[in-house]
Amino acid sequence: MSGGAPVRILYFAWLRERIGTGEEAVHLPPEVDSVQTLMDFLRTSDPRHAAGFERAALIRCAVNQVFATPQTKVSPGDEVAFFPPVTGG
């Protein structure tokens, strides 16, 4: 695992329910450096994360409170939020 600060990960709505927590701090291995590799890493970490990320194409993300794409870089100390699409009306 990397020696940097942990990444603060936030989960909202049905993701929070499936994963079983709204927030966690995770020290990432060096190869985890983007939203996509973070999602892949989390998906393989345990069955609850696997269930939460099984429909990854529906999940939206923000890194440090800015909307992100799968290619957005993730660094130690960042805050990453995962949430379902938001609709208004």
Written description of the protein model:
This protein is an alpha+beta fold. The chain has a single domain (9-83), classed as Roll (Ubiquitin-like (UB roll)), CATH 3.10.20.30. It is 24% helix and 24% strand. The chain contains 3 helices and 5 strands. It has helices spanning 14-19, 35-43, 47-52; strands spanning 7-11, 23-26, 60-63, 66-68, 79-83. The protein has a 5-stranded mixed β-sheet. The mean pLDDT is 92.
Please give a handful of descriptors for the protein shown.
single chain, 89 residues, alpha+beta, Ubiquitin-like (UB roll), 5 strands, 24% helix
Structural class: alpha+beta
Tally of strands: 5
Mean pLDDT: 92
CATH class bucket:
Alpha Beta
Helix-strand topology string:
EHEHHEEE
CATH architecture: Roll
Q: What would the CATH topology be? A: Ubiquitin-like (UB roll)
How far is it from the N-terminal to the C-terminal residue, by CA?
44 Å
Fraction in helix = 10-25%
| CATH superfamily annotation | Beta-grasp domain
Main β sheet profile: 5 strands, mixed
Task: State the helix count.
Answer: 3
Provide the gyration radius in Å. 12 Å
Strand order of the largest sheet: 2-1-5-3-4
- Percentage beta strand: 15-25%
Low-confidence stretches: none
Backbone shape: globular
Domain unit count: 1
Topology, element by element:
Blueprint: E1 7-11, H1 14-19, E2 23-26, H2 35-43, H3 47-52, E3 60-63, E4 66-68, E5 79-83
Parallel strand pairs: 1-5
Antiparallel strand pairs: 1-2, 3-4, 3-5
